[in-house]
Design a protein that fits this description.
The protein is mainly α. Helices cover about 70% and strands about 0% of the residues.
Length: about 160
Amino acid sequence: MLRFRADLRPLGFNALYFALSALAFWPGLALPLAVRVVIFAVLCVTSFQGAVQTHNAVHSPVFKTRWMNKIYQVVLTLTYGHPVSSYVPGHNLSHHKHTQKLKDIMRTSKARFRWNLLNGLFFFFLVTPGIMAADLAYTKSTRRTNPRWFRQAKIEMAALQIVQV
């Protein structure tokens, strides 16, 4: 089922993320402040791990079968907060293809503050407009050129919207 035994660890982190999310938002459950702080901290870490797992899963699928990887992309979408399929245009087709060049929409040279703290704080806001534009253009083009990718992206977006409501 799994391509590599080591993929059990990220799946465990995913399970922990969803279990703690359910616990944190369980209606009527009154938890002590210290417990809520610990849950919040662990959710921050496992959510970040979800972003790392998204990166890794796009480069190296976790499961041996395509349909299981598609389901896993939906699961990762819920930890990532954004459709995993949209990782392709910004990261794979821009960043890896044109690393740190003008066509790399997430190149680090977009953050030019003298203080690296400011670069870290504002990098997201500096690259997001380019990423969103690339995502939109790629999504529009794939409707005809790559309908399987387009359908998967729609499924991920629908799952995300349903869970967020």
